[in-house]
Amino acid sequence: MKFSNLLIKWYLQNKRDLPWRSTTNPYPIWLSEIMLQQTRVAQGTPYFLAFTTAFPTVFDLAAASEEEVLKLWQGLGYYSRARNLHKTAQYVASELSGVFPPTYNELLKLKGVGEYTAAAIASFSYNEVVPVVDGNVFRVLSRYFDVETDIALASAKKEFAALAFELMPKDNPATFNQAIMEFGALQCVPKSPNCSICVFNDSCAALQKNKVDQLPVKSKKVKVRNRYFNYLVVEDENENTVIQKRTSKGIWQNLYEFPVIETDKVEDYEYVYGQVQQNFFKDNDVVSFIGYNEESIIHKLSHQHLYIKFWKVSLKGTVENGINNEVLKTFPFPIVIHNFIEKE
């Protein structure tokens, strides 16, 4: 079909040289696909290279501690991906003798592997005829064929997968899948694509109908929750500090942080200091209490906006379980806390 032939021809001329494209080994392909969920290629590539250097095989990743994995993942966000990655590596290494399942349906059973990731691994590693459907695919197909289906609907993925399957050359599914995603990433971009140089500019329905900026249709808006964190950065007489592990489900599970006071709104010095005196460091007198940042640092996550303030708490005597700055830097932190530590 004309669409597939043109698309693959464009891909072979324009594709980026990415490290996970030079192999059919499912381990690095799986790693790259998990890392690139919710992450741009430019941001994810250094992490991919760091992981494959530290953990060249699935056995190496399985043998690592969760803290080692989280520390290397630090800054990529969506930390449940890293925890699932680690658990899946352990499962593949111990239960499957290091061999990834060879089919789409079996890959779907792995923790953290959804329809898109399973399709990518199945087609890239095993050449299974199964289409990938991600944001790029939604965008390219909805524009080219003028499909007005709301991609926020659960049924949309099935509709677009059926269309992609119809277009896919059955003898070359891997290249087609790579090509359509790359085309969406480089050419048919979300905002202001340069349609004048597009290989489909004489056949794209959205371009003919002047609807490029209206497609794909996506209705659902994510409700964002605001949260207010006041981090207490302790320093005792030995210049030691204290940290704690976030063990509850939710953001940053199993990462570390300073003791925190979460409030309903941005609070001032008097309020936070009052909370410190009432509820923290009963065994040590507070020598001084100073705010590091007058304005909150706003850290945006997909469903939450965090308003963060750091407060320096100097204490008399020594704190229990205190650690020095060198040890502090070995722990995995959310990137906003990591950046604060590095700056101080």
Automatic annotation (TrEMBL):
Binds 1 [4Fe-4S] cluster. Keywords: 4Fe-4S, DNA damage, DNA repair, Glycosidase, Hydrolase, Iron, Iron-sulfur, Metal-binding. Its cofactor is [4Fe-4S] cluster. GO terms for biological process: base-excision repair; mismatch repair. Residues 35-186 form the HhH-GPD domain. SUPFAM superfamilies: DNA-glycosylase, Nudix. It is an enzyme of class 3 (hydrolase). GO terms for molecular function: 4 iron, 4 sulfur cluster binding; 8-oxo-7,8-dihydroguanine DNA N-glycosylase activity; adenine/guanine mispair binding; metal ion binding; oxidized purine DNA binding; purine-specific mismatch base pair DNA N-glycosylase activity. It holds the Pfam family HHH. It catalyses: Hydrolyzes free adenine bases from 7,8-dihydro-8-oxoguanine:adenine mismatched double-stranded DNA, leaving an apurinic site. Its EC number is 3.2.2.31. Adenine glycosylase active on G-A mispairs. MutY also corrects error-prone DNA synthesis past GO lesions which are due to the oxidatively damaged form of guanine: 7,8-dihydro-8-oxoguanine (8-oxo-dGTP). This is Adenine DNA glycosylase. It comes from Flavobacterium gillisiae.
